[in-house]
Sequence to fold (191 residues):
Amino acid sequence: MTIPHQIAGNDHLGPLVEGLTAERTVHNIIKVDHAGEHGAIGIYQGQIVVSRLLNPSLVPALKDLLRHEWEHFRVFDKHARARGVRKCRLFPLWRVGGVVLGVVTALLGKNGIGTCTSAVETVVVEHLKQQILYLRTVDSDLMSDIEAILVEELAHRDMGEEISRPGPFNRFLASAIRGCTETAIWASMRL
Ligand SMILES: [Fe+2]
Ligand SMILES: [Fe+2]
Fold:
């Protein structure tokens, strides 16, 4: 797939930590993505539990998303084991936070689920694009795995947008979820 390459200078580092060696940066990328997929698993697990009661028609689609997140998690787990990358110190919190976010947004119904998925995956997509830009000259093996994952995260984001209802509450919720996700990524790159 084609990734936009219009980012210039140090901006291509995006959410990556500046001033680290390439090896540390690659380890950080694996560490944060491993933790992030762990959180995504929590979100969809939480949404599935609640949706079985409130929105059973959404459960098959949510199960597909959960299956993808498990596959993504295994990819980063494989890279982490192969390179001896330690887990993020916030690793357990990602899962707990994901489940809480999934349950709360699913209690808000279809719009809550769609808004959550679209907000989280929007941040994830931007984050993965920055990583791909960085990795293209550093680690093509990891880059191609992330490119494949990006395709699925884009589809998740689009599905979320399709089932969410635009409005002031939706905008407020989306911006709060995006802010929390950005903060969790920022902290996980450093812990
Ligand atoms: Fe994922
Ligand atoms: Fe996803």
User: Anything to note?
Assistant: DSSP finds six helices and no strands in the chain. Confidence is low (pLDDT under 50) at residues 1-12.
